[in-house]
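Input structure tokens:
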């Protein structure tokens, strides 16, 4: 007798207001996704964010000392970031005021 394989996917059921469903369907459509795919991806991303926010980082006392020295030391300017910070905002340029 053949052994039935265990189910690898588990259903989740939610009750949502019609307005929420309409918004989800509209967003999913804009992404070219089904409602199920859109909601699954959004839920997994949100779960990953929470787990990453609460992740414990372990290190040796020496490693911690090296980390603290690196973040407490003098800063060095990044030329590309300095250049970006010096640029005029798009709404501050002449081209924007001529529109």
């Amino acid at each position: 007798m053949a052994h039935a394989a265990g189910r690898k996917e588990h259903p989740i059921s939610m009750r949502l207001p019609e307005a929420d469903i309409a918004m989800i369907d509209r967003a999913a459509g804009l992404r070219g996704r089904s409602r199920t795919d859109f909601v699954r991806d959004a839920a997994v991303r949100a779960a990953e964010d929470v787990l990453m926010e609460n992740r414990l980082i372990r290190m040796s006392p020496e490693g911690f000392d090296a980390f603290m020295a690196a973040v407490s030391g003098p800063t060095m300017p990044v030329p590309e970031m300095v250049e970006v910070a010096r640029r005029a905002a798009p709404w501050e340029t002449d081209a924007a005021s001529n529109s």
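The chain has one domain: 18-88. Residues 87 and 93 are 10 Å apart (CA to CA).
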